[in-house]
Amino acid sequence: MLIPWLVAVLAGAGVGVLQYGLQPGRSLLPALARAGAVALIVALLLDAPVGRARVPPPFAALDASASWRRGAGGDAWTRARDRLRAARADSTYLFGDSLRLAGSPDVPEDAASAVRPAVERALAAGRALVVVTDGEIDDPAALGSLPPGSRVDVVDREARPDAGVLSVEAPRAAVGGDTVEVRVRVQAGAAGSGASSLDLLLGNRRAARASLEPLAPFGERSFALSVPVPNGDGERLLRAVLAAGDGEPHNDTLTVTLDVSAAAGAVFVSTSPDFDARYALGVLRGALSLPTRGFFRVAPGNWRADGSLAAVTEEEVRRAARTAPIVVLHGDTAALGRPRDVTAGALALLAPPAGGALEWYATGAPSSPVASALAGVSWDSLPPIAVAATPSRGSWEGLEVRQGRRGERRVAVVGIEGSRRVVVVTASGLWRWQFRGGTSADAYATLWGSLFDWLAGERSDVRAALPADPVVRAGEAVRWRRGAGADSVVTVALARRGAPAGTDSVTLRFGAGASVTESQPLAAGVYDVRMRGGSAVLAVNPSREWLPRPRTVRSGRVGSGAPLGDAPRLRSLGWAYALTLALLCAEWLTRRRVGLR
């Protein structure tokens, strides 16, 4: 604070000495006037502070998420608005799924609790921030950058016994007559939950039921239920429903879609079931929505059907592989005989190396039919894999790997174009891409998805775009996967069931090499989706704000940024300019009086 004034005084003194010398004698008054005027001019240029810093009033932000209403909420929202008014803030904001400057609504409805936009607004204005919330903030780490003087005010809500369905894991597609395994995860709220039951409804029919014992506060329970799939064609709604009677009905149901087909679109046969087999099978059923039958050999001569784990004979496996349009053989690819002799459709051979070291890194995708889909992959982010030493030969190479990223080159994926299409994958450990999540998981889905799409010759699904995620919630962006064709712009029409007549159009734009894009969040409900090549069903579930979850913040002071407050500046004071002119005039008059020009 004193440095600008010190610089100004030194500059004024220097100019005074330079003009009048160290012993001005009769010129002392003009020298002092010159030094003062120059000092003020320099201080004005530096906008030197004047007086003590003043701390401006804070901003205040109110969490407007729907979680206030979970379990009826009592009068918590009313008390939160009272505390907002008591903060006596200069400006008040609402935050949740957006930040806006407005009065508090009668009913909080936001589908998220993101506080970062409010933090950034306060930092940009140089103000402390008072955050009024129920404690369930999505990004609590953002509060750490607030300046001193900021605080969080958590308003207590009445806790009631409640349980909610957190997740449902089910195949995206299945063959009529098969049995699929569905995994459901349930969590209790802050007051625990009472005894209940969980039903799985396929369409309007109850397909499975399980009992739910009482849960401790925030306790979780997972269920693995077998669901018989009825014969037929088309998409059906699969609902996980908790019996009514707890504190919040919005979180008692979670809906996904199951595409039922009369015949298998693919058959997956593995003689050594592992994570590579599990995740590749998940791509077939999930991202590509291919109705797939899986068979695992768990011991010599002992085969099991995926999902139900029912025993099947080797002859049944041979029959399924012989009639399927796409066959994937994993492990010992010759276990059923010569692959080309025991299959009639497109063929994928997944032949993992025996005991290979995980020291090979994917570095690129050579020119091939799948290269465009892999163009956007960030290769440096992928974990290492193991690759066979003896390369396979084919019409094209799909994935290039190098030892330690810069060493010896090998090929992990080749394709053979002929009377029927064949893909050979001589790598293992690819499942680590999926397990890491994020961009690595996207690369995994893109690699297998592009390979299976090529095998199918784009005959498996002619729709231009499909929902990418099995579970979609209100307030979250809807992810779409590029379908058949290479169009970068796809228009889909959405019609919400039960809503007034009308259709909304959404334009999807896929970037260069991208197979997934996003659109704006949708309100909860079931939507009939039409796009070029066909139609689909999209189930949008209530937002995560209705799910029970522990608090992420507590009441108290927050922030570690620089201290706030700013002293008044010299440029804002009119008398500084007047005094500068007065000193210059005084110098001129005193110079004339002592006989200087």
What can you tell me about this protein's structure?
With 597 residues, the protein is an alpha/beta fold. Helix content is 21%, strand content 31%. The protein has ten helices and 33 strands. Strand 17, helix 7 and strand 18 (346-350) form a beta-alpha-beta unit. The longest helix is centred in the last third of the chain and has 20 residues, at 574-593.
Alpha-beta content class: alpha/beta
- Percent of residues in beta strands? 25-35%
Distance between the termini: 38 Å
Largest sheet: 10 strands, mixed
Number of helices: 10
- Average pLDDT confidence is 87
Shape: elongated
Helicity level:
10-25%
Task: Count every beta strand, where a strand is a DSSP E run of 2 or more residues.
Answer: 33
Oligomer: single chain
- Widest sheet: strand order? 16-15-14-13-17-18-23-22-21-19
Radius of gyration: 35 Å
